[in-house]
C-alpha cells in the first residue's frame, strides 16, 4: 500500500521539500543573504547566488556547512565564529544566523504549507503501523512541524539543534539519519529515507538504509538516482496504491 519493501518498518523523512514547501523559503532566504553578502565583498567570485549553487552547495546541509561550502566555491574564506554570533558578524556562523533571520521572516509572512500528497502518505504510513521520524538539518524543525500541523505524526525528531548538541556530521554524512533510526529503535536496513536534496539521498545510501526515496522538487531526477536514490517520485502520493 505504501510502496516500500516488506523489511521496512520505519520512515525517516527530511522536512523541507519533502513534507513541507519550506525548501522554497530556504532557497529565497539563502539567495537574499548571499547576494547581499557578495555585493559588499572585494574578493572571490561575486556573481549572484543561483539555483545550481543552492542544490550543489547548500540544500540539505546544516546551516554552517552550507555557508562554508558555498563560500569556498567562490574562493572566499571567513573565520568560523560561534553559534551565538550576531547576524552582522563577518563569520561563518554570523552569515548563517543572518540567513536564519531571513527565513523566519519569510515563514511569518508566508506561513508553512505541507504537501497534500505528503500528508496522505504520512496518514497511510501511520495506519500501516510504521514508525515515523523527521530528520532535518534545519534548527527550526520543531517550529516548522508545529506551524504545518504535522507534529502528531512524528515519534522522533533529529534537527539542526540535535546535530550540534550531539556533534553529528551533517549530510551527506549519514549521521543524522542513523540518529533518527536509533531514536526509533530500528536498524538502518529496516528504515526508508525520504529526501529531496542530493546530499540527503547520498546520506541515505551511505548509511546502508533499506530504501532511499528521492523526491524530485527541483527537476533533478537523474541526479537523485546518481547520488543514491532507489526510486524517484515527484510526490509521495505516487507511492500509494491507487495513485495515478
Automatic annotation (TrEMBL):
Annotated GO MF terms: beta-phosphoglucomutase activity; hydrolase activity; metal ion binding
UniProt-listed InterPro entries: B-phosphoglucomutase_hydrolase (IPR010976), Beta-PGM-like (IPR051600), HAD-like_sf (IPR036412), HAD-SF_hydro_IA (IPR006439), HAD_sf (IPR023214), PGP-like_dom2 (IPR023198)
Coiled coil feature spans: none
Origin: domain of life: Bacteria
Catalytic activity: beta-D-glucose 1-phosphate = beta-D-glucose 6-phosphate
Keywords: Carbohydrate metabolism, Hydrolase, Isomerase, Magnesium, Metal-binding, Phosphoprotein
Listed EC numbers: 5.4.2.6
Keyword Hydrolase: yes
Needed cofactors: Mg(2+)
Pfam families (UniProt xref): Hydrolase (PF00702)
Family indicated by similarity: Belongs to the HAD-like hydrolase superfamily. CbbY/CbbZ/Gph/YieH family.
Protein name, entry field: Beta-phosphoglucomutase
Organism encoding this protein: Actinokineospora terrae
